[in-house]
Design brief:
Length: 201
């Protein structure tokens, strides 16, 4: 893998204002936070996405972190694979430097976990990406939203907005932690980042 190749950080979600506050869109919210930190604006890209180029995080000695493209597909979640494949091609990013940020039902709300490869856990965005790329071997930043209450269908739960109390007491910290996790992943590598991000608080 070339050390000079950029990273591609993709946040998953559904397009349009009606979905913007959904739990399913938390990946896209994390990319918005990374763009804010980098002082850049996401702009429409021909790969059916909005994207921006920036330096992610801070490397050793306080130097700016590695070059990266942050992006959110403009397609619906279950069609994320096409835009991701097109972005990888356009920016000449190897799949080893792809980071997909997505909501995760099987992780407690407020927790963030990092992994590379593995299954999709029923996540339609991941399933589309794995299918389009022909591999599951890419990095994931899994943003915990927890399980639905009672007997609510998980499909309904992920398409509901974060509650007012969650928007106040959970979401700002969750987005901050997830953006930090992306920065750790691209600056120090997966294993070191996992030790830092997964450490008990």
């Amino acid at each position: 893998m070339s050390d000079t190749a950029p990273w591609l950080v993709v946040g998953l979600g559904n397009p349009g204002p009606g979905y913007a506050g959904n739990r399913h869109n938390v990946g896209a919210m994390v990319v918005d936070e990374l763009a804010r930190r980098g002082g850049v604006s996401l702009r429409t890209h021909k790969a059916r996405a909005v994207a921006a180029q920036l330096r992610v995080g801070t490397g050793p000695g306080g130097v700016p972190g590695p070059a990266a493209v942050v992006a959110v597909p403009s397609s619906y979640m279950n069609e994320s694979g096409g835009p991701v494949k097109a972005l990888l091609s356009f920016f000449s990013v190897p799949v080893e430097r792809l980071v997909v940020v997505h909501d995760e039902l099987d992780i407690d709300a407020g927790a963030v976990r990092l992994k590379r490869g593995g299954g999709e856990g029923g996540h339609n965005g991941l399933r589309s990406i794995s299918s389009s790329l022909g591999t599951k071997d890419y990095h994931r930043v899994r943003v915990g939203i927890g399980r639905p209450p009672g007997r609510m269908d998980p499909a309904d739960f992920v398409l509901k907005d974060f509650s007012p109390s969650e928007r106040k007491d959970l979401l700002p910290f969750l987005l901050d932690d997830a953006a930090d996790a992306v920065e750790q992943l691209v600056t120090v590598g997966l294993l070191d980042a996992q030790q830092r991000v997964h450490a008990p608080r």
